[in-house]
Amino acid sequence: MSGAVALHYQGPRQTVAVNIEYWKDGVKTNYSSGMGTTFQGKNNQGEYQYDGDFVYSLQDRYDLNGTVYSELVYAFVSESGYASTAVRVDKPVGINMTREMRMQQKEKIPLDESALVWGLQGTDKQQMLSYSSIAETLQSAKWAMVVRIGFNEINSLRYMPRI
């Protein structure tokens, strides 16, 4: 599975951040901060500007014991260069069917928010439901891993469920 999301930005923030979230039965259970990127270029108005892509690829790998796991490789790519990283994605035992979730339409992300741009859902059943948005699909997913992009570091207290 692979793809890309075009990113066009002009504004006061210099950094875009990535968070990776894990969901189970419609509830966020964990998250990790991923790699972000810093915008270098400014326009004539003194605002940061970025025109590039967020690209991703998910592939199965084998560890030294022969255990299968998935690896998510993602990058920010523009004319001025790229930054990339890889993240291990461990699916729970019993997940036998997976399906990709993609952003379906253009979104404008406010500076104090973030957007779900890509994800993977899985189930131990014989069928899965998908809805018109990633956020809607997460509410019914048996298991999911999603990538969230925003203009500042995503505050873990704001997005973690209450216990």
Q: Which tags fit this structure?
A:
2 helices; 163 residues; disordered C terminus; 6% helix; mainly beta
Distance between the termini: 34 Å
| Strand fraction | over 45%
How many helix segments?
A: 2
Query: Describe the biggest sheet?
Result: 6 strands, antiparallel
The sequence of SSEs as H and E is EEEEEEEEEHEH
Q: What is the molecular shape? A: globular
Could you explain the architecture of this structure?
By secondary structure, the chain is mainly beta. It has helices at 134-138, 156-159, and strands at residues 2-11, 15-24, 27-33, 37-38, 48-62, 68-78, 81-89, 97-102, 114-123, 143-150. The strands form two sheets. Strands 2, 3, 4, 8, 9 and 10 form a six-stranded antiparallel β-sheet that branches. The chain has a four-stranded antiparallel β-sheet with strand order 1-5-6-7, with no helix packed on it. Strand 6 and strand 7 (81-89) form a beta hairpin. The longest helix is centred in the last third of the chain and has 5 residues, at 134-138. The model is unreliable at 154-163 (pLDDT under 50).
